[in-house]
C-alpha cells in the first residue's frame, strides 16, 4: 500500500523589517501635508485653530489655486 504524501506547506517569504529611522521622515512629511491641507483648504472658521481672519486671508490665494471654495 502506498503512503499518501505529507501535506506540503507553502513557503511564505518573511516580511521585511523596516527600521523606524527609515519611516520617520515619511511620517513627518505626511503630517506636514495633512497640516497644509487643513490650513489651506479646510479652515473656514468652523474648526479653526487660530482665531480671527488672519489665517483665512493668508491662505486665500492658495485656496483659489487649489480649487477650494472660500466665498
Structure description:
By secondary structure, the chain is mainly α. It has a domain at about 30-70. The protein is built from three helices and no strands. The protein has helices spanning about 20-40, 55-60, 60-65. The longest helix has 23 residues, at about 20-40. The mean pLDDT is about 75.
Give a brief rundown of this model.
This protein is an all-alpha fold.
Structural class: mainly alpha
Principal-axes shape call: elongated
Contiguous helical run count? 3
Classify the helix fraction into a percent range: 40-55%
Low-confidence runs of at least 5 consecutive residues:
none
Radius of gyration: 26 Å
- Kindly report how far apart the N and C termini lie: 84 Å
Beta strand count: 0
Strand content: under 5%
The largest pleated sheet is described as:
none
Q: What string gives the helices and strands in order?
A: HHH
Overall residue-averaged pLDDT value: 76
Helices and strands, with pairings:
Elements (H helix, E strand, L loop, with lengths): L19 H23 L11 H5 L1 H7 L5
Tags for this model:
71 residues, mainly alpha, 3 helices, 0% strand
Amino acid at each position: 500500500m502506498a503512503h499518501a504524501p505529507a501535506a506540503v506547506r507553502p513557503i511564505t517569504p518573511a516580511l521585511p523589517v523596516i527600521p523606524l529611522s527609515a519611516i520617520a521622515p515619511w511620517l513627518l512629511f505626511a503630517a506636514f501635508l495633512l497640516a497644509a491641507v487643513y490650513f489651506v483648504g479646510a479652515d473656514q472658521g468652523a474648526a479653526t485653530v487660530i482665531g480671527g481672519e488672519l489665517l483665512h486671508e493668508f491662505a486665500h490665494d492658495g485656496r483659489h489655486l487649489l480649487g477650494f471654495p472660500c466665498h
